[in-house]
Structure formats: C-alpha cells, structure tokens
Design a protein that fits this description.
The protein has about 525 residues and is mainly beta. Helices cover about 10% and strands about 50% of the residues.
C-alpha cells in the first residue's frame, strides 16, 4: 500500500464555492440511470484446450464535493466540513469457460483515494463530516492506493446443468437482482428501487463488499429459487477489502418470478419475490441503541435477526404510457443483544411514464417506513435493521438510511435524448420514532465498528428535506458520465445536533468505463 499524508491547508472558500457552482451547473442537468452500475463485460480471448479464456474490466473515477452540516468547535478546535477529494478504482478479471459449463474466475480490485480531509471529525455526537471524513478515519491517511482479491470462484452454468447453478468461493451478491427483466420499465425499477436494500456489494465505495461462501440457484430465466451463505468481507471505506469480517455471516433464500412466470392477467408484466434472510453477528461490539450507555453495556450480546419479506412490481398500459406499481416489505424477529428484535419496513410507490412526446417524462411518488423504537426501557428492540445494504440506491446523499425513518418521495425522470437521462428527486424525511436515534450507514465493514453511526434525536422527529438532481449520459457501450447535486435542508433533529449550521450540500462528477 502506498500512503502519503502531508498537511495541506484547506482550499480557499471562494474556490470551494466555485467548485459548488460548477457542480450545480453540470448537475442541474449520479448516476441515477441504473445508478451508473460499474458492470464488467466479457471479452473472449479464444479457445485454449477444453475451453476458452476471457477477461473482464471496469474503471471508475469520481470527484465528490462535500459541504457537511456545520460542526461545533470544541476546546478551541475547529473542524473542516467543506472539502473535495477523489476516489477511483480499476477492476480486472481473468476467467476460463470449460466446454462442459464450468467456469473458473478471479478478479482484482485496485482502489485509490486522494486529498482526503484530515480534520473533519468532530466529537460525538456530530462525528464524521461526510464520506471523505469517514474514508480518512477508516484508513488513517490522506492519500492511499491498494490492490486486493475482489472475487474468486468456481461456477456452474444453469443452462448446462438442467437449471442448477452454483457459485462457490468469493463472489458479489445484490439482493433483488435474481431476475432482471428485459422490459425496460421493470428493469429500471429493479435496478433503481428494489436491489440492494438489504444485501449489496457497495460498488461505488472503494472497498466494496464481497461474500465468501456459496450461492445456489435452480430454475429458468423467468423463475428461480436462490440460496446462499456468505461471510462478508471488509471493504466499503477501507482501501483494502481482502479480509473477512470475523464473526459476521448471512444466509439468504428467495423465490423469484418474472414476467409471465405465472398464469393469469396479473403476471403479464410483473415481477415478484419472497425472501428470508438470517443475519448473525458475534463480534461483541457495543450495539447502537436508544438505551442508556449502562443499559447497552449490560444488554450487549450477539445479534441474530431473521428477516422475512417480499416485493411485487407491475406495469399497466394506460393511455399514452404505463402505470407502474411497486410494493416492498419486510418483517424482522430474533435477538438484538439481550433484547427481542421486532421491527418492520415497507415501501409503496406509484408512477406514470409517458412513452410518447418530448423527453418521455416519468413521474413517480412513494412512501417508505422503517420502524423505530418508541420505548428504550422495555426488552424489545423495534428499530428496523438494514443488514448489509448499499444505501446509494435510495439515498445518494447518504446522511440517513432505512432505519427509524419515514421517507416521502416524489421524483421526475426524463429522457432528453436516447442516451441522456435527467432526474430530479425530493424527499421529506421524518424519524419514525422520536424516542429513537438518527441512523446512517451501510452495515458491517470491519471487525471493530458495527457499521451504523447513530446520533441522538433529542426528542424531535423532523429530520430533513432533500432536493437532488442528476444527469446520466451513456456516451457509448463502454463509457458513461454522471453528475449529481443534492442539498439537505436540515430540520429539528439536525438543528439540535448541528446548531451552527443545519444545511448541507453534496455533489460529484463520475466516469465509468467498461470493457
């Protein structure tokens, strides 16, 4: 690993404001079009022996700008909350397809970070001022570059084994993507509003997330059963994600049906899934909770949570376009230390997509509820646990997650050209339980931190409103360019935590290249 951490002075304020204006000009136009997935495509190198070699590759370059909520000076020390930095990664894989349907594959990931803020972490409860601050806290250096094994597995192709598929080794998994339909509307909903809510590969963070274990599938193109067991790797904010997280494992089972997989009118343009997830965490880390510190220390213990849920998507032709309906929900039970886990989350969304006329606008609205804990003094933990998600897909400006939150959302998606997608979103965020905490994070990413950062609510419930806009340009089959700008208008909860400034901005420019 190469590291360098010189003491650079903070950039001048007018330069930072100029960067924000530039970001606004570009973004008013992330990667919301399929959220700019860094897919890798195969390039076949030709027949060698009983099969053929192939390579995969992808690269991402991203320049975020962060203006976090204003931290309070402590003992004469001030903290940086406005900065820009760069994050990049390159992925390269080599595989071999045997003629009998067996594949062997290995992939390396080389991430890098540059110009991280070195003084952007205030004392609790304010903590880290945005993603750049978290990167620095995780890696302890301003600049870093590394390389590690991202995937390495043996796979069986279901087409060659009568519908039976297997991946064994180190692999990536994104829940909800067991079936990705060809229908463009359903496909967009799966890739932008369903996938990775509970288990995700966190691709846009430098370390990502993989699972060490095995995944089994059985079925056909439009219906299957998927089962897996895995131990998540470190990564996400860490520049090196090679090691497993000791004491955490996850098991998953889903039943999936795509368009026309079932008889009848309802399933003509529909997709559904039922799933069960078991999460086990024996790291012994002090759990984030709304109980007092003494209660938390006495009640600490393993986390063993079962989640049962499902989702349903349906499109209907109506007039000059399509109506879409999205339903997603989950119920949790198990143990949170010595407490009993009893929590829930659900999402309902409705949209209309005009398929003719200029820009083909798609207007959608929805409401998400993730339960909070209304009583810290009983033996029940009612905060929904988001497991191992990629928050990116429902919170590009990720100062919140799907825990103790009510999220009312409206969005407008347009297509100025065939290769250009522009989107504007508005979110109104409330805490589900004002007696609970304000949570942010994406799940376990090392041995010593639980993976979610809690801040107190101070008995208040109004969190923030978020206005964001994004542009995605698919230049060609290999290159996509993305711009994003989001502004958070902090309300009572954030004002209580950050009395010196409750507004925040986040912007980035991103380029993704694929073989």
């Amino acid at each position: 690993m190469l590291r360098n951490s010189p003491a650079h002075p903070a950039p001048r304020r007018h330069a930072r404001l100029a960067a924000l204006v530039l970001g606004a000009v570009l973004a008013a136009l992330v990667a919301f079009g399929e959220r700019a997935r860094a897919d890798t495509s195969e390039v076949n190198l030709g027949q060698v022996g009983p099969g053929s070699f192939y390579i995969t590759g992808a690269a991402l370059g991203m320049t975020p700008y962060e203006q976090w909520f204003t931290p309070t000076p402590s003992h004469g020390q001030t903290y940086q909350n406005e900065y820009g930095f760069a994050e990049d990664f390159v992925r390269f894989g080599l595989g071999y397809h045997f003629n009998n349907g067996v594949t062997a594959y290995a992939e390396a990931l080389s991430p890098s970070l540059f110009n991280l803020p070195t003084n952007a972490k205030a004392p609790y409860p304010q903590g880290e001022s945005g993603i750049g601050s978290t990167y620095y806290a995780a890696n302890g250096t301003r600049d870093a570059i590394d390389i590690f094994l991202k995937q390495a597995y043996i796979a069986l192709d279901p087409k060659a084994f009568n519908g039976f598929g297997l991946v064994a080794g180190r692999y990536e998994f994104n829940d909800g993507t067991e079936i990705i339909p060809d229908d463009p509307g359903l496909r967009w909903l799966v890739l932008n509003r369903i996938q990775q809510r509970l288990i995700g590969s966190r691709f846009v963070l430098v370390g990502g997330r993989s699972l060490d274990g095995a995944k089994v599938t059985y079925g056909e193109a439009n219906r299957n059963v998927t089962m897996l067991y895995g131990m998540p790797t470190e990564g996400a904010y860490l520049i090196n994600g090679n090691n497993e997280i000791n004491g955490v494992d996850v098991a998953y089972l889903s039943f999936n049906a795509g368009p026309k997989a079932l008889p009848g009118w309802l399933w003509e343009r529909a997709l559904g899934r039922l799933f069960v997830i078991h999460y086990d965490d024996t790291r012994g880390i002090l759990l984030p909770d709304n109980q007092s510190l003494a209660q938390r220390m006495l009640g600490n213990g393993p986390v063993r949570i079962n989640t049962i849920g499902g989702n349903f998507l349906r499109e209907f032709a109506a007039g000059p376009g399509d109506i879409d309906v999205l339903l997603w929900g989950a119920r949790q039970f198990g143990s949170w230390g010595v407490q009993t886990q009893s929590a829930y989350a659900y999402t309902a969304e409705l949209g209309y997509h005009w398929l003719s006329g200029p820009w083909q606008p798609w207007l959608r609205g929805g409401y998400t509820v993730a339960s909070g804990d209304h009583s810290p003094n009983n033996n029940t933990h009612s905060t929904f646990f988001d497991i191992l998600p990629t928050p990116w897909y429902f919170a590009n400006f990720a100062f919140y997650d799907m825990q103790n939150v009510n999220d009312a959302m409206i969005e407008l998606l347009t297509y100025p050209t065939q290769s250009l997608q522009w989107r504007v979103d508005f979110h109104s965020l409330q805490l589900n339980a004002k007696q609970d905490l304000w949570y942010a994070g994406g799940g376990a990413w090392n041995d010593t931190l639980f993976g979610y950062q809690p801040r107190p609510s101070y008995g208040r419930g109004n969190l923030a409103s978020v206005l964001e806009t994004a542009l995605n340009w698919e230049y060609d089959e290999h290159l996509s360019l993305n711009w994003y700008l989001g502004r958070a208008f902090g309300a009572d909860v954030i004002a209580a935590n950050y009395p010196r400034g409750k507004q925040a901005n986040f912007a980035f420019m991103m380029a993704i290249w694929r073989l």
